[in-house]
Amino acid sequence: MSAAEELKAIEAEVAACTACKLHLSRKLVVPGAGSPQADIVFIGEAPGFHENEQGVPFVGAAGRFLDELLASIELQREDVFICNVVKCRPPGNRDPEPAEMEACSGFLNRQLACIHPTVIVTLGRFSMSRYFPRAKISGIHGQAKVIGGRMIVPMYHPAAALHQPSLRRTIEEDFLQLPAYIQQGKQMEIQASGPEDAPEQLSLF
Ligand code: SF4
Fold first, then answer.
1. Would the CB of 20 count as within 6 Å of ligand 1?
2. Which long-range contacts does 1-6 make (Cβ < 8 Å, 24+ apart)?
3. CA 165 to centroid of ligand 1, rounded, Å
4. Ligand 1 pocket residue status of 101, Cβ below 6 Å
5. Is the entire prediction scored with pTM above 0.85?
6. 61-86 pLDDT, tens digit each
7. Using CA atoms, how far apart are residues 55 and 172, in angstroms rounded to an integer?
8. Does any ligand 1 atom lie closer than 6 A to the CB of residue 85?
C-alpha cells in the first residue's frame, strides 16, 4: 500500500472512530491534509469551530497566518502535511483531555509512520508534550532536537500570535529556520538510519 493509500485508509478509520467522547459532539472529523511525501509534518492541537465545519485543519485566522508562514519559506499547504493531536473538535474549544489524546494517538503515529517526514514541527503545548513532556515552550521554541531518529522542532501555535501579537515576530523567526533544519535532517540521513541507529536525543543547537 502506498503512503497516499495508507493515509486514505487512516482517514476512513478516523471518520468512523468512536474511541473517545469527542465523537459525540463533532460535526466533521479533521484527520489532516497535505502531501504523503511531505518533508515537514505540522502537528497542532485540535480542530476548532471552522475546522469542525469544513473537515480541514487550520482554517480561519490561525490557518491564514500559517499560510503566510509557509509562504515565507516558499512552501504551500500542498507541500507539507498538517494535522492535530486529536481529530475531533473538543466542545467549546476546550483543551483536549489526556484520555482523548491517548485514544487518538494511534492515528497520528500511523500518519507519521507512513509519511516519514524529515522534520516534525509541533505547534503549541499539546503536540510539544508528545516529545518534550516537561518542557516549557518559552524555553525551547525554535530549537531542533533529534529524538528517536527524527528531527523535532517545537514552536508556538499560530493562534498564540492572534492573542499575543508580540509573539508574531518570534513565530516568524522560528519558521525561517525550517529550511536549514530540513537540509540538516536530510544530510544526517535521519530517514534512512532508523530509530535504533540514531542517538536517543541529540541537541542540534
Ligand atoms: S478524537 Fe480521535 S479518538 Fe476521539 S473520536 Fe475523534 S478520531 Fe476517535
1. yes
2. 2/36, 3/36, 3/37, 3/114, 3/115, 3/116, 4/36, 6/36, 6/110, 6/114
3. 32
4. no
5. yes
6. 999 999 999 999 999 999 999 999 99
7. 26
8. no
Does the C-beta of 40 come closer than 6 Å to ligand 1? Answer: no
Contact 128 CB / ligand 1 (< 6 Å): no
137's CB contacts (< 8 A; 6+ apart) are: 124, 125, 128, 154, 155, 156
Split at pLDDT 50, 70, 90, the class of 1 is confident
Task: Give the amino acid at 64.
Answer: R
Burial of residue 32 (number of CB atoms within 10 Å: 0-12, 13-18, 19+): buried
Please state, in angstroms and rounded to a whole number, the distance separating the CA atoms of residues 196 and 148: 8
pLDDT digits (tens, 9 = 90+) for 134-143: 999 999 999 9
C-alpha cell recorded at residue 37 = 511525501
Å from CA of 131 to ligand 1 middle? 20
Shortest-distance atom of ligand 1 to CA 18: 5
The string of pLDDT tens digits covering residues 8-42 is: 999 999 999 999 999 999 999 999 999 999 999 99
The candidate with the shortest Cα–Cα distance to 57, out of 76, 77, 79, 40, is 77
Lateral strand order in the sheet of 81-84: 33-34, 81-84, 40-44, 119-123, 150-155, 145-147, 201-203
